[in-house]
Amino acid sequence: MANLGGSAHVRLTGIKSTRQPSAANFALWRQAPVEAIDVGPLVLQLMPVGHLASSVRDTSLTFDPPLPRIPGLETSFTLDHSRSLRPLEVYQTGIELMYDLAQRDWMEVVLAVIIQQIEGFNVLMMFLNPQPPNLPNQLQIRHCVFSLYRALTVMTDGVLFCQLRCKLKIHSLQVGALSIAPLDDKRTVAADDPSMSMPDEQGRLVGADSGQLVDDADPKFVINYLFYGKSINSKEVSMGVVEAMATAAPFDKNSECKELTAVSPDGGCGIFIESVPGSRQTFAYKHATRALKLLYQKIIVRQRRFGDLYLDLRYDGQRFGELRMLKFVGGVANATDAVAEAR
């Protein structure tokens, strides 16, 4: 445990990733460049996988993000542990923001600001582009996706759910910044709550084994879901959804999504999305990301139920996609035969 200038403590451990990307998606799985996080008196060096410097081995984190490498991109983080955030509010807001980014063009320039805040939540996320529009290096959507992914990974792995500032640079020139901060310090409880799976008022965990969800924004989009098998750590589920969203972001939202595979950074949750062959309706990346958003907000979080899950995705009555969320143990999916029986 490391003391960060006060009573707050964090665990500093390396990630042992067990991710196994498919051959089709392998080009998207790249190592991150070296970076540093400034957390007051302690500087954490973030090193590429398999390249841990001995001098910082005890405080190093490894990344293997599911994104195409961006030449010259540098990210640095400053965290203030005195301004804590609720983990579940951070994940929900981060996933909402990642969803919005995934609907935009990968190379789109960010004009001025992008702000995300969910009503009732004490979390505000904001990207800022301070560059005049006539300069060549500008903050782009791809930079935002990469830095948001890293920021949520930093918070999760260091158990540092607190105010975060991120500087984004291209070849040492700052092109933007990311801020994750509380709106009101008095409304936030301690960031190291023992569980994100909170019971209802009667003390029972809510949730049904199966059900149906109709998208309010598009009633033709219908999700039939089935819980089965084992529970999954809530933070693994949250980061698995973040990972899947980030994996989809580089693709045109209207292009066909035949297959999307994602594994949470710590290897405990796998998400597999694929189209249904022969369907008259094209299953696009916008449908995959929409399913992920609804899955997390309307099914998992609303029921406070984190576990193996199967989704049958239909549009206008036509089955056109499916999603599986599985618990991984040592990099191996759990109870895949139960999914087959659920079809």
Task: Write a structural description.
The chain has helices at 87-102, 141-158, 234-248, 285-303, 336-342, and strands spanning 2-3, 9-10, 35-39, 42-48, 61-63, 73-84, 113-116, 124-128, 162-170, 173-181, 210-214, 221-231, 259-263, 269-275, 307-315, 318-329, 332-333. It is globular and about 50 Å long. Residues 1-64, 190-207 and 334-343 have low confidence and may be disordered. Helix 1 runs antiparallel to helix 2 (141-158) and helix 3 (234-248) runs antiparallel to helix 4 (285-303). It is of the alpha+beta class. The chain contains five helices and 17 strands. The strands form three sheets. Strands 5-4-3-6-9-10-8-7 form an eight-stranded mixed sheet. Strands 11, 12, 13, 14, 15, 16 and 17 form a seven-stranded antiparallel sheet that branches. Helix content is 22%, strand content 32%. The termini are far apart.
The fraction of residues in strands falls at 25-35%
Distance between the termini: 46 Å
What would you report as the Rg, rounded to the nearest angstrom?
20 Å
Continuous helix count:
5
Oligomeric organization of the protein chains: single chain
**pLDDT below 50 for ≥5 consecutive residues: which ranges?**
1-64, 190-207, 334-343
Largest sheet: 8 strands, mixed
Topology:
Blueprint: E1 2-3, E2 9-10, E3 35-39, E4 42-48, E5 61-63, E6 73-84, H1 87-102, E7 113-116, E8 124-128, H2 141-158, E9 162-170, E10 173-181, E11 210-214, E12 221-231, H3 234-248, E13 259-263, E14 269-275, H4 285-303, E15 307-315, E16 318-329, E17 332-333, H5 336-342
